[in-house]
Structure formats: C-alpha cells, structure tokens
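Worked Example 4.2. Read the sequence first, then its structure tokens.
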Amino acid sequence: MTGREILLNAIHNEHTPRPAWVPFVGCHGGALIDTPADEYLRSAEAIAAGLLRADELYRPDGLPIVFDLQMEAEILGCELHWAHNGPPSVSSHPLANGATLADLPEFSVEAGRFPEVVAALRTVKAEIGERVALYGLICGPFTLALHLLGNDIFLEMFDNEAGVQELVDFCARVGMQAADAYIDNGADVVAVVDPMVSQISPEHFRQFVAEPANTLFDHIRARGAATSLFCCGDATRNLEVMAQTRCDNISVDENVDLALLRDIARAAGKSFGGNLQLTVVLLLGTEDDARRAALQCMDIGDGEGFILAPGCDLPYDTPPENVAAAGLMAVDDYQREIARQTITEAGEDDFCDIELPDYAHEPDVILDVITLDSATCAPCQYMMDAANRAAAAIGEGVQVREHKITRREGLGMFCRLDAGHVPTICIDGKPTFVSIIPDQPRLIEAIRERMREKGRV
C-alpha cells in the first residue's frame, strides 16, 4: 500500500498494516527551505518547496498544504499581525465595533492568499499526490466567528443567541467555499480546525456548533473528500459531542488523554489522531524523546483507525531530526523494534533554576499567562487578550506576563506553577483559569479579589 492509501484507510477507520503518519508541516516548511514564515505563507513556490522537502525528510503518509487559520479571516476584513517564525495572528475584529455581517467584504477564494495556497496544492499534487494524501485545513466555524467578533462572543452566547448562531452558520458557509477550493485542486482530506471549541461547554457546542459543523462535513463528504475535526487545546470536555458529529476523524493535541479519545472515537466508529508533544518533545527534546513519545502514542492507538501526528502545527524551529525520528517509528518496522530495545527512560528536568516571584510580597497582582505562543496560537492569543483587557480596565496594580512554553523559561513556569494545560492564567501563582478563557467581569472580579487580599483596594 502507498502512504496515501494507508492514510485514507486509517481515516475511514479501516484496517492498515501500520499507523498512518501525518506531520503537520505548516510554517515549519519555511524553516526547511530557510525562508521566514511571513514570506513562506505568501508564496506558492515556497510552500511547494517546503512540502517537497518535508516529504524527503519525514516520509509522510499525509501532509497539510498550510496550517494557517487566519486565511479566511483576512479575506473577511480582519487585520493580521505577521511573524518571521510562525503563522500570523488576528489583530482586529470587524464585528466588534457595531459592524454587521452585511458590512464584511464578500468571501472569495480568489482573494487573499488562497490563490497562492491552491497553486502550491496543484504543484505538490502533481509531484507526490499519488503516494501522499494531501490535506486542506480550513478555519472551523466557531474559531472564525471569534476572529470576526473577538472575545465578546463568549458574552454574546448568553445575551444574543440568535446573533451568534447566525454568525457561526455564516462561517460554516465560508468553510464550504474554502473546502471546495481545496477539493477542486486535489485535496484528499479536509480538516476543519476549530481550536476555540475547547473554550466552550458541551451544551454550547451542541447549541451553536454541532449543526453548522455537520452541514460542513456533509458537504465535504458529498464532494468525495474525507473529513477531520481537529481541535487544538484541552478539548476533553467536548470529546463526546465532537464524536457525535458526522466527521470521519477526530484529532487532538497533547492536552487530551489519547486513551480517552481512543475509547470515545472507537465507540462512535471514528478514527482518531494525535498527539505528539510539540514543545517538550519535538521542539526542545532529543531524537530519543521523539522516538519514545511516538511509541507511546502508537501503543495507545494500537489497532485500526489511528493516525500518528503532532498535536498541532509544528513550531517553525522544530529540529527536523526529531520529526523524522518520530515518523520513522510509524513507517519502519525494523527501526521501531530497535528503538523499543535500546531507548532508556527519559530523565526529567525539575526546572529548579527557574525562580518564581515572591507573590505574597509583590506590590502588584501578577497575571502569569502560560501559552504556547500568543503570536501563533489562537486560544493563547485570546487568553492574552483577556488578561491585557482586564489589566487595562483595572488600571494600576496589575502586571501581565506571558510565558511561552516554546522556551525553557516558559516551560519551567508551566511546571513550577503546575498550570496543567495551555493556555492558563495564574493569578499570583495560582492557576485560576485553566484552558478556559474567562469573560471580562469574571476575570476582573478574580483580580480584584486578590487585590483586596493584598490590601490594594
């Protein structure tokens, strides 16, 4: 079987001779060809070159064309902040200041960066598409709705239910157009990537997201492509309702217990994918760490319908040798057995050199926001936005500090504060909002309560 056949069999929950392997090469493709991310994601030639290089290095069964959840938002009028080492982030929300859906620019896949991405897809399809399954990744309807409206969407879900439903339905229709562009040009799989559903309850998922998502999945399947629902962040509370949708596959990141996902997905007759650790293992670890983590995931996913993959978009600077080492465990039986016999248990870094502030004696309340990177991760971006807005509303007496776990300092703060999941807001050293973006009144009151304890108000 070709890798493409293995991937498609796996995603349809059919028998495969081994796990399928999909490295989510997004902006990391730019690093592979020594091109900054902000140039790479704007160039069909660069994207194609990066993916072909990834094919040589990683022996994948499937590859995404890009991993950029801002493409649709950009066309609809969101301004972007660009980075050299990651995908862009949304910096403005057109519906946040009174604009309506009718005021937005018309969505078209002939606009923005879609023509470049589609051209890259055609090139890669011609080169490797017979043996590698190609993914089109589209921004999920709830995440796109949040890009357009901003953090206010969490209050609007209570105060303006009909308006939020109209917005999410609109975003699903945009998703259909984006999916069509990928399918028309050779994509085998369309993944609906909706990280912000990790921030809502199962009840709100059923109310606002399930039917728009199902309509989107039905449309993609009717066009002949496979479907995946991909949620970065701690989606644990929503795994059951995600499994009740009409997608073929559910993929998650390292915040989710892979064994729990396995049991839920198999009970629903779906395949599942994940969830190699992005930072501790792939970015900051060793080749042995990568092999060990891959074997652990494969042991949990034992049987049909499992796709070994990173938990989200590979960080730009991920060492290629780590990604290759992880993938080799899926595609090479001999190397897998050698690794099982030779890899020893990993030592743990206790981060004892990372010093915590003396929160009790600090005059200000300190908000430590633990993120992957707010410049490149949507849930992290909106968590930082919530913290900064609350601090601005209160005025003096509050400090906001971001700790990115893509750096050892941030990883050390994550461990020493026992944050548990990313993103998390810690108030004076106490994890308070763990993988849940709080609404402004709730966050402001939590900060003020701490200020009262310190005699600041």
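Now turn to a second chain, presented in exactly the same format:
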Amino acid sequence: MSKYKLLAVDMDGTLLNSQKKITPRTVSALAELAKRGIYVVTSTGRGRAEVSDYPEVIKLMHYGILNSGGLLFDFVRDEPIAIHGVDEAAILQIIDFGLEERAMIHLLTTKKSVARESDIQNMAAFDMAVYFDMFNRVCERCDDFKGYVRAHPGEVIKINLYHRDKESRDRNFARMSKLNLSISFAEAYNLEASPAHITKASGLVELCGLLKIDVAEAVAIGDAHNDTEVLQAAGLGVAMGNASDEIKQLADLVTLDNDHDGVAAAVEKIF
C-alpha cells in the first residue's frame, strides 16, 4: 500500500497531451486513485475558467491548486478557499510593460479569465494558437485593463504576459524582476506573475495543511519551469518525459511523456 495520500498533477504538458486532451487510460488511473481515497488535485497555472473544459477529471477532484498557487479552489462547492491577490500597483506596472512590448495581457481572477479581443483573435502571433478555442470561449473581453483592475480590487490573482519573441519576453523579465513578485516562464514566450512567495509549492503546502496531510505524503507531477518548486517540495517529485533536462534533473523520478500516458504510468508505478 502506498504511503502517499495526495497527487498534485500539472495540466498542460503533463495531464494533457499535445492535442490538449486527457486519454481514457489517464482518466481511469486517476479515478482509481480517487476511489481508494487518495486526494487527486490539479496543480496548474490555469484559472477556474480554463480548467472548466475537463469535467471528466474535475469531478474526480475535490480541490485544485490554481493560478500557480494563488488560488485554492473547492470544485465541489465551486468556490475559492484561499486567495492570494497581486498588489494593485504591481499589476498596473505590469500592464504598462505588456503594452510597451505589444504583448498579450491576460488577467486571472477568482473565477474569470480576462483578455483583449484583438489579442485572442491573433494568438498565433504569441505562439499560442493551440489555446485559441479555449480563450475564445472562456475569456471576458476587456480593452481597459487598468480600469478593470481598479473596478475589481483584490481580485486579480495572476497576470500572464504572452510575448511575440524571446527578446521581448527577456526585456519584460528584467523589468518585472525589480518588483516584489514570483515570476515564472511557461509556454514559448510567456511570463507568469504572482504575489511574492506564491508558487505551486506554496499552494501544495497550504492545501496539505488544510487537509492535515504532511507534504512528504504528496506526489507532484509536472514538466515546466513553473513546476520547479512543487517538484522539490513534494515527498516525491515526478518529471514528465517531455520536460526539460533541468526539470528532469531535480525530480526524483522521470516518467513517460505526455503523448504516451506519462501520468498514468507514474500513478501505476507509485501508487
């Protein structure tokens, strides 16, 4: 019998294959864990709106670590249980940085996803075409981001800036690094900004505390830069076969890639 009581699994590049689908084998593996009383939670940079496309998995999860740790969410009650908002002054500066670099600005709140219509219709320019259908369906449209932030104080939990190239991203990384934030890389040229010290790892620690579980009893699976801390914090950190060498080296175990049921293979081996 496994000593682990909780599985925290990333979505993009991990739970989802390259077509953004979850295979029947993976669903079955997670369902078996849930049936055995093991907590299955998503640990993702996505917000509540972006995880709504996967009801077959969400129904197996009582809780989610969303917005890269900025939001702990109760899927059963469909409500937040912990919220860590970004400082308004920092958000306004990030918006300016995004506008200066002609980046796609994406705000995530407790339940909403906010972006400009013009950017959504041009997501290929930000190497984000694979997400167009989802963004087109779930995003609230907004052109005045600063007005939105001021009208919704304390609600913005995370900001994504999707850039057109690496040079643009790197310029904004230098600017944003001067602010008191947690910044991580995701997708091709994205920067994710969360409150200082808020990461998927802090979300895992917070959720384990609420559930009265030792973090050493948790398994985390991921593939990207924003999974670094959670793979190190969990009792067992698992890197996907499609992860970078850097992520694989810090993990305790490497599984198959996301197009070959890597999550299912890890679950079957560990649990």
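Notes for the reader: The chain has two domains: 6-83+198-270, 88-195. The mean pLDDT is 94.
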